[in-house]
Amino acid sequence: MEGTMKGAYLPGNSTVVLKDVPIPRPGHGQVLVKTKACTICGSDIRAIYREHTGKGAEGYQNVIAGHEPCGQVVEEGPGVRRFKKGSRVIVYHISGCGVCHDCRMGYMISCSSPLRAAYGWQRDGGMAEYMLCDEKDLVELPESLSYADGAQVACGFGTVYEAIQKVGVSGNDDVLVVGLGPVGLATLMLCKALGARKLYGIEGNPVRIELAKKLNLADKVLTPSDSNAAEIKALTGGHGVERSFDASANDKGRATAIRAARQWGKIAFVGEGGTVNFNPSPDIIHDQKTIYGSWVTSIWLMENLVEELVRWNIHPDTLVTHRFPLSKVDEAYKLMDIGNCGKVAVCFDEELK
Q1: Residue 219 CB burial class (10 angstroms; 0-12, 13-18, ≥19)
Q2: CA-based Rg of the chain, rounded to a whole angstrom?
Q3: Which of 55, 126, 134, 137 has the fewest CB atoms below 10 angstroms from its CB?
Q4: Cα 187 to chain centroid, rounded
Q5: pLDDT (tens digit, 9 = 90+) per residue, 18-64?
Q6: Angle between helices 158-167 and 182-193 (to 10 degrees)
Q7: d(CA 113, CA 56)
Q8: Cα of 37 vs its chain's centroid, Å
Q9: 3-state DSSP assignment of residue 28
Q10: Mean local confidence (pLDDT), 97-115
């Protein structure tokens, strides 16, 4: 395919620059994907949009932004084996070397090779009309899921699904989610599908509290305070929750996630950045609690998650509160930075509702 396209770049001063660039040509084992939806992640705001603070895996190399893309294959390179022209695909947003230990387990997010390149960070991402993808990084998008559903699978919902696999959630569990941004809301949504007994949230943003209530995702949402752990214990018969998740990246929020868990409870940290302060002996050791760190997911669990979303009739696009065309991508990033929203998506064609 010949011609040029628009692509969005993040100079690191809370602005977005649209540039005309050549439409890429797929090489061996690659495909050209027509972007249909690309959602904005909190890490885009934290590490790139405001300022280029990321290092290593989060180092932005002045490429086309966007690491939560979904679209349709429009051109195949030589050597493509599975995904053909017309295939609807989700992009796993890290392209790993494929031969290190982590890549062989499907965890390209943890690829240890210098060849590792994340879409929207070290190689061109989805904030453009087209994007070049390695076929090995793609997951099939079923017809029953929208492109805006698919855009949230790899990073947002995939991150949550991985954490849930680590701690386990069932009908035996009361669950607390601290921070009800898109990742926290996704956590409530998946835990509800898994049959969690009671779901509690902590959030200070009225827009996000209202979205949680509108979607009926939580039995009760508390506003942040120093008494949150005591409030959660009072709601759970004095015990605390069996499972808690922090998606806030806030020091006090993380401490609450730990202290609101009951004896033998499991806590997962998925919110990026920030710090946490707690007292190891009373907060975790004496109560036999376990804290898990969880970063994105594997490509095989991502495929499994897609099957589960269809089985459970869950549509991640219900978390999308605002859709923008690429021509207004600057407004999309600005809104996500302010935070008075659910998920924000840059959309094309039929997804631009």
Answers
A1: middle
A2: 20
A3: 55
A4: 10
A5: 999 999 999 999 999 999 999 999 999 999 999 999 889 999 999 99
A6: 50
A7: 11
A8: 14
A9: coil
A10: 96
pLDDT digits (tens, 9 = 90+) for 313-332: 999 999 999 999 999 999 99
101: helix, coil or strand? helix
Domains contained in the chain, CATH given: 4-146+315-351 (3.90.180.10), 157-293 (3.40.50.720)
CB atoms within 10 A of CB 145: 21
Q: What is residue 353's predicted lDDT score, i.e. its pLDDT? A: 77
Report how far residue 93's alpha carbon sits from residue 139's, in angstroms, rounded to the nearest whole number: 11
Contact at 8 Å (CB) between 31 and 25?
Answer: no
DSSP secondary structure of 257-305 = HHHTEEEEEEEEE---S------HIIIIITTT-EEEE--S--HHHHHHH
Which H or E run contains 139? strand 138-140
Q: Of 329, 337, 327, 325, which is closest to residue 36 (Cα–Cα)?
A: 325
Report the phi/psi class of residue 73: left, alpha or beta, with left for phi > 0 and alpha for psi in -120 to 50: beta
Q: Specify whether the CB–CB gap between 167 and 187 falls below 8 A.
A: no
What's the token pair of residue 232?
Answer: 């959660």
Q: Model confidence over 146-163: pLDDT tens digits?
A: 999 999 998 999 999 999
